Amino acid sequence: MKRIRNLGLIAVMALALTATAGVASAFGSAFEAPEGAVELKGKAQTIQRFVVNGGQEFKCGGSFTDSTTQATSETLTTNSLAFQNCNVGNEVKTNGCQLTFDPKAESSPGTFEGAFAIGPPSCGPMTVTYAGSCNVTISPTTGKKATFTNSGVGAEREVKIALVAEGLTYTNSCGGGGSNGVYEGTWEMEGYNGGKRRAIKVSPSFEPGPGIHVESGAFAAEGYPRPITGTQSPQLVLTTPGGEVKCTGTLGGKLTSAASALPLTTAFSSCTAFGLSATVAMKSCGYTLQVAAGGPPFTGTASIACSKEGDEIAVTPMMFGFPVCTMTVPPQALGSVGYENLGSGKTEHVLAKISGSGIKYQGSSSVCNSAGWHTDGTFKGGIDLVGTA
Fold first, then answer.
1. In this structure, are 256 and 184 located in the same domain?
2. pLDDT in tens, 56-102
3. Vertex 380: Cα angle to 259 and 295 (nearest 5)
4. What stretch of H or E contains 228?
5. Could you list the residue range(s) of the whole structural domain that residue 58 is in?
6. Max Cα separation, the chain?
7. Are strands 38-44 and 91-93 parallel, antiparallel or unpaired?
8. Is the peptide bond before 331 cis (omega within 30 degrees of 0)?
9. What is the pTM of this model?
10. 154-171: per-residue pLDDT in tens?
């Protein structure tokens, strides 16, 4: 199955999706199109309402545009959110923020309780302009209440999504601000094929594959939690004037939800340093990959992060079973990353290509470079990230 994502919406939503029959699973509910490929059009069923300062209201309506994607998925994220036709003198700008819908347990036949988010965390913030120059900013948020209801029969089956977000954090340039903001509204989604209505629903039975991908500002999977295995492709290599440090072995991580950062632990073996066999002690350190907003192409950064203060990676080349010297590498940025989504559906995976210079390390003379701190290292290689069941 392939996920629903990148849903276009201008106070309305649209997408095309391919549905596959689901089977019972612990992963819960999903958006599905039982009659095959459809274009899904959504519109604001009710006025979209923002409330701040204990009662000040901003109301908007809207129109819709279409986008094309394919999928069946537990979650759905918009890619072109906008609000139009607001009450006189008001304007709402999303500033890159989107809505993510996540149906969960079926509370009664055809009705599903769930959650929605305004995000990603790095977006926006959203702004509401009123009285010409006053600006209210609304921060990203997660875990807000959503109710998904299947409505209609046959080809005219549709999904209604009622959203209520209380406790929004906001500021107001003309006075006020706090964490008592409210957003609420209802969306209506319909399926079409060749101009004719086709069914769309939320299904209580969905089994996602282990596929993972990157999108704007996030690593994401078809279902969570999703264990991840990383293989070196090409091999990760730290290069200094004294030579190269490299190991065989894999990396591992886990996604519990869509996230901008992916920490990876290592399971390295058969290491060499400066032409000699070596031990590489990672201690509490590992690699962290981050995805920036924007794309495609998708980019980000890589870094060394250690969970215990003072820990560093220790590289010790060996000769005749005895240590020759030790080089240490502290937590730091490693460089830029280019991400490529490969495969599709259950076989979708991510290739992360890392390249950086100015890497800091401490030598201790002998073959481990001259004693003292240096910043002339380079780090290059790739990690093929694959989801596992």
1. no
2. 899 987 654 444 334 466 777 777 788 888 887 888 999 988 888 88
3. 40
4. strand 226-232
5. 8-208
6. 81
7. unpaired
8. no
9. 0.53
10. 888 899 999 999 999 999
